[in-house]
Prior knowledge:
Elements (H helix, E strand, L loop, with lengths): L11 H4 L5 H14 L6 H9 L5 E5 L5 H8 L3 E6 L2 H10 L4 E4 L17 E6 L3 H4 L5 H10 L1 E12 L5 H8 L5 E6 L13 E7 L2
Parallel strand pairs: 1-2, 1-4, 2-3, 4-5
Antiparallel strand pairs: 5-7, 6-7
Helix pairs in contact: 3-4, 7-8
This protein binds S-adenosylmethionine.
S-adenosylmethionine binds next to helix 4 and helix 6.
Amino acid sequence: MDTVVPMTSAPRWLTDTEPGHSQWYISRFRDMAADGADLVGEARLIDAMVGREARILDAGCGPGRVGGHLHRAGHRVTGVDVDPELVDAARTDHPGPDWRVADLADLDLVDDDGARSLFDAIVCAGNVMAFVAPDSEAVVLRRLAEHLASDGVLAVGFHVAKLPIEQFDAAVAQTDLVLDLRLATWDVRPWRPDADFAVSLLRHP
Ligand SMILES: C[S@@+](CC[C@H](N)C(=O)[O-])C[C@H]1O[C@@H](n2cnc3c(N)ncnc32)[C@H](O)[C@@H]1O
């Protein structure tokens, strides 16, 4: 199993969860998949926003449900997560993408020719931004911006009870990214100030 030594303080996913939480999370999604649950709504929106065979980064990929679907849709997918147990599950359950263990706060992906890896879309689904290390949201967003193609889109979804939208917007303001569109759901319901969920589509200016 891979190990990772984060350069910043540790993500809340690793510090604020109970022992066994990772295996619980893996089992939960395996059970939902076995029951035929729709687990790819986020991936469908990403698929609609990019051309075919796009380069896509599943940032905070967990056990791989989003990146796995995008791979099966024909895209070139890299998935990164700080939790080695979840990345192992992604490799087992969704073979095909390039699944890696890394902290998004230190993200440094390069292609075989040594050039920075650039993605047409980066997706942060499932409250990833609420689980990064405290006060590292801007650091993480800047690392993701470094990996976003000039006309690419970074899609970030989270419950606003877990991460206040003002805190997220303050982090965005510390990057070179701009908010292109905000939705209240991954199935494209319009944003409202009283919405409990936010999907923010960020781009380079
Ligand atoms: C609730 S899970 C969502 C997983 C997946 N995106 C999904 O929707 O199924 C949150 C994920 O964020 C990951 N995560 C949190 N902080 C991270 C960081 N700094 N670098 C990489 N992954 C991180 C956790 O390891 C965990 O897999």
